[in-house]
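Exam revision sheet. Question 4 asks you to relate a sequence to its structure. Input first:
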Amino acid sequence: MNMAVNVETLDKLERKMTLNLPVEVIRGEVDARLRKLARTVRMDGFRPGKVPLAVVQQRYGYSVHFEVMNDKVGQAFYDAANEAQLRVAGQPAITEKEGAPEGQLAFDAVFEVFPQVKIGDLSQAEVERVCAGVTDEAIDRTLEILRKQRRSFAQRAQGSTAGKGDRVTVDFIGTIEGEPFDGGKADDFFFVIGEGQMLPAFEDAVSGMKVGESKTFPLAFPADYPGQEVAGKSADFMVTLRKLEAGHLPQIDDAFVKSLGLSDPGVPALRESVRKNLEREIKFRLSALNRKAVMNALLTKAELDLPKASVQAELQRLIEAAIAELKARGIKNADKTSVPEDAFRPQAEYRVRLGLVVAELVKAHALAAKPEQVMAYVQELAAGYEKPQDVVRYYYADPQRLANMETVVMENNVIEYVYGQARVTEKKLGFDELMGGPDAQAPNAQV
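Answer key, structure tokens:
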């Protein structure tokens, strides 16, 4: 297609391109599509394939012309952009231009290009690398979680009072200013006292009660309570204790190990299995912390302008994800929720900036994920599951899931490269510090 192309710079990344297209090219394609449509279109009063071209043109001419214009102008734009070796960011805004030469149609396309990314001297970057190890105390705590997961409950003697560790079954009803509210009523609801399933005031009210007793008590919902309708408000509750059961934890012995389905018998084999799982979990958590430190250090050494189109696209993805999360939590009319863009703009800009910097580093130093690296990572991820090969097949069965793994491995390559270049300081974390505190359950408590 013959076309004259002129590109001018409007701003740092913004460009304008003028395209001239021959009218005959548009007209010829429109006629061709209308003839093809006439062979298949069905219209009342005509047999299939016998609709006159003039009738088809009258009915479909405008829409076909619109489609052809979009296709031809769009193709002309991307052909010209490729010829000029422009890396286009986002979609161009194309408008028809007046004053075209005889037999031509003229269009202005305004668009952005991806920026040049300049990465400074990484040897001057300072990066902290955190490390941690598995302790016997961490193994003991994980074994306690395994015991809790397999505990049994037996009804307590008549007249016993509810206390920490007991499983209670209750009926309750709550009101705010005398009116019931969603989620404020339940029958035969059970929970274990002392495990944080209920607000402390609720657990305190039930503690000391006997089966058959009822009690009324006030309860103030925290301002950050997940239920937005009651957050920060005070309610009055009436609770009745229906059932009281004491928990029994199994002993950690050979029978307990056997119940877990381990291939190797004995308590030492159980402890070793737990150690391996915790080491895997620690590695993934350390990787997340170190990734953040490396990426932030990398950004301090990078200079680039951000394409507005890329930021806007990322902003839209974040907003859609936020609305999807609200829907998953059961928030009513989540689709109609107005999400302020400014709340997500810093995160969107951070993600776009980081993506461009990482892509430049990967290209400059051949840090893309290799197939064998991806396989090794997926196998390591799968090792913590009962049937590792099923997990491996799960990732390799879907291109998008596999692409996500490739991204993680590529980022790991970037992290190791930056550590090899930068000034690194080591910091050792305790197990509790890494996992979120002494009261946090050790993750991946399966064996």
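Marking note for examiners. Residues 122-136+264-435 form a domain with the Trigger factor, domain 2 fold (CATH 1.10.3120.10).
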